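G., the chain you wanted modeled:
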Amino acid sequence: MTEMKLSLIVRGQHPQGDTRKHLADDLDLVRAADRLGFDGVVKGSHYSAHPFQSVQQIPFLSYCAAIAPRLRIICGLVLAPLHKPLDLAEQLATLD
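Predicted structure as tokens:
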């Protein structure tokens, strides 16, 4: 029998305003997911999401790995054509 795994998807899109508070709220969600026994955390990329703001995917997931090391870190959708290949490779290798 296969075991079901649950991950939290952090959308991370917020109205313009207090970016620090929005980031803190998202990180609190990650901590809660860890406490509640979730298996992973997912963050996608959001570009041109006006009027919303969104933090960058890979740095956010790196921070998640530091505060909740038990959780599996999952890149949702990486929009590869919007990145320089070497930069993207280095960022993902650092996250790994």
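DSSP finds three helices and five strands in the chain.

Shout if anything looks off.
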